[in-house]
Amino acid sequence: MIGERVRLAREACLLTQQELAQSVGAPLSAIADVEVGRVHNPSAELISGIASVTSFPLGFFKQGALPHLPEGHYRRLKRGTARVSKQVRAQVRQILELVEKAEATVSLPPVKITPAHGGLTSIGIEEIAERVRRELGFNDREPITNLIRAAERAGVVVVRLPGKLEDHDGFSVWPEFGLGGRPIVALGSTQSGDRDRHTVAHELGHLVLHTLRSGFSTDEAETEAHRFAGALVLPRRAAVEAMRSPLTLGVLMSVKAHYGASLSMGSRRALDLGLIDRSHFVSLQKQLAKRGWRSDEPVRVDVETPVLIDKILRALGGSGSAVDRAERLGLPLFAFRSLLASSG
Fold first, then answer.
1. How far apart are CA 185 and CA 247, in angstroms?
2. How many other C-beta atoms lie within 10 A of the C-beta of residue 300?
3. Buried-exposed string 77-105: b where 16+ CB fall within 10 A, e elsewhere
4. Geometric angle at alpha carbon 333, from 331 and 335, rounded to 5°
């Protein structure tokens, strides 16, 4: 049990076993033996050193077994490394532990979204996205003004992870589905409101489309999640009405202002729905690139902030100083402050 907690703390801080051993002043074998369970009762000096290096409170290492975290799905660039993916999983696993503790004492909204079964076509994904919009409380035309809050009201815990997660935008996982488990969507550092909305919608797509279904490749899962995200943020009927020919960047900017869908998402949505052909889509992408709008689009979309994780942290952390509350939660002080700062 202590071994998996040492590993979590190490990976959450983006450290290798060798780097942790050097920082603690212990042999590599000492860290490895604890993590794999060959040593069940490491010395107090070693654990104190690990706590100091990782900034995790000592109490964290004295708790029982960590909850099981399924594989989940990442939204990351192709150059994103496995090392950062492990960092994301470690941080989310600790969030999961807090969520599971909160279930017994904190009033959390019931989970309203439901996963899909069986094979899917593009039309099927559109229909599922429309169903999820209804589960979130929206019809097939109106914009979802605050997607994070809508997801939270539907029982999804959304959290912005502390620190810069290189080339990773998001992660989603549904632990203990069917046994009362609660879905989690994790975001990386804030980039823009529209990009965050795309990431949340994309990860909701993974939760709905890929929790129960199997037999698809990673690329196929990503394609399905992107199609779902577009349909959730910019529903089919509204898209057809709003993006009439000729589709220009000006039209896409108007759509973005109303629906919070990036220009890139809007142009892709038009292609998916057959409103434009591929040559028109490529032309729009080139226009975005020429203006430098692929990474910095015009039309500001407000950044949304989670509130459910704030409720959990305050309930479980109790009163007192930030140090005291972080200690009770088993969180590094910097992580506790970051989580509070990114919610509200």
1. 33
2. 11
3. eeebeeebbbbbbbbbbbbbbbbebbeee
4. 65
Give the helix ranges, DSSP H, for 103-177: 122-136, 147-153
The four Cα atoms 275, 170, 341, 137 give a dihedral, to 10 degrees, of 50
- At which residue do the structure tokens 């902030």 appear? 305
Distance CA 244, CA 321 (A): 56
What CATH number does domain 1-66 carry, 1.10.10.350, 1.10.10.10, 1.10.260.40, 3.40.50.150? 1.10.260.40
- Which pLDDT band, with edges at 50, 70 and 90, does 178 fall under? confident
Confidence of residue 10 (pLDDT cuts 50, 70, 90): very high
The tokens for 89 are 């999983």
Which has the closest alpha carbon to 133: 267, 229, 255? 229
Cβ atoms 336, 326 nearer than 8 A: yes
- Judged by DSSP in three states, 302 sits in coil
Domain ranges of the chain: 1-66, 68-344
Considering the chain, what is the average pLDDT of its residues? Answer: 94
Give residue 344's pLDDT.
Answer: 67
Residue 338 has, within 13 A of its CA and on its CB side, a CA count of 16
Each residue's pLDDT tens digit, 46-100: 999 999 999 999 999 999 899 999 999 998 877 878 899 999 999 999 999 999 9
Tokens, residue 108: 């959390």
23-51 confidence digits (pLDDT tens)? 999 999 999 999 999 998 999 999 999 99
Q: Is the pTM above the cut of 0.85?
A: yes
Distances (CA, A) of 48 to 6, 24, 54, 312: 11, 9, 10, 28
DSSP 65: P
